[in-house]
TrEMBL record:
It is found in: Cell membrane; Cytoplasm, Cytoskeleton; Nucleus. Residues 34-261 form the Ciliogenesis-associated TTC17-interacting protein N-terminal domain. One of its GO terms (cellular component) is nucleus. CDD domains: DD_CATIP (cd22973). It comes from the Eukaryota. Keywords: Cell membrane, Cilium biogenesis/degradation, Cytoplasm, Cytoskeleton, Membrane, Nucleus. Belongs to the CATIP family. Residues 1-20 are annotated as: Disordered. It holds the Pfam family CATIP_N. Residues 1-14 have a biased composition (Low complexity). Plays a role in primary ciliogenesis by modulating actin polymerization. This is Ciliogenesis-associated TTC17-interacting protein. The lineage of its organism: Eukaryota, Metazoa, Chordata, Craniata, Vertebrata.
Amino acid sequence: MAGAPPEGEFGAAASVESEGRGHGGQLLLKASDEAVTFMSSVEPAELLKCVFPDSLVTVSESGRSLGRFSVTVEFAFRFQQTCVLLHAQSQGAIDNSPCGTTVTAYLTTNLELLEEDYYEYVKLEGHSLEKRCHMVQCDGQMVIDNVTTVGEEVTKKSVSYPMSVLEGLVTEGSLLVLMRLVALRRKVPENMTFISFDQGFDMFHSTFSELGVTQMDVGGETVEVYGIERAVHSVEDRPTAWHFHFLDDGHLASRQQVASPVTMRLLQMPSQQEKGFEKIPLDWEADMQMRSKFLDRKEELKADNASYLRKHPEVRALISDFLQFLLLRKPDDVFRFARDYFLPFASHCPPESNLKSSSL
């Protein structure tokens, strides 16, 4: 995915003390007024049109399937407010080495990031590479924790930025929702310049521009798609661009990094995927056969779960210890507390088990 989480040389935790300079003395960048205005202008009715799943296939120039990409957007309740929940996942292989990325983000209705988890892995022969980045708003700061694991070596880094300098921030999670909104409006305002973080925790500019309307083959049908270019202007590297094309209803039809031989493509029109699946109201309590199957399955699951707990008494002990510690500390952020509590146990699990548990 574009816009990978922070990584690189690791050291002690850092923070931004002033609004003029970032960590290491880097000059803080600002988003354009047009970009900030766009985010603040988002209406609930527009967000409702963005609540749907997308599923694409990653293909090579020759048409060979390399993996899959999926994203879902829905409403949720988090941090005592209604927010947008995005979950995106890509899976594939690089030179026959399994790899994947998972992003889960909670956003305000104006696309301000509340919390985001980014997980990336590559399984190489003999060892694996994992990157985890967690971003969350806390006491007026955006706190970023990054953990990179290469084989048995684990490196960590943490920084924080005051929210006052992050107007117009676009992350991997908010980007996907933002692109849907732009596509539904069918217009990219001039001077759409956002800010993002590079792999060293520094800011860079990210700009949007319009590619216009073109035609594309989707499932044997020629359809019109609306194109948007996103360009990343890193301080150290040359600009990198991605092209996105969307259907009229906001569904993503294709996504490609410019000059890359790999493309994510929609293989079938959404309406065709849903065709023939009519929703039939079910009253399982009135249907004796269905009720009987439900009760049998319920008892089967209860017996299976009880058997597993008898074989693994450490499960009850682990949960009991966690709950006692939780009630003793009574943290405001239960999710962060749980993550920090169970993180040390990850080192006791084989890499393959960690990867499977992280996939959704």
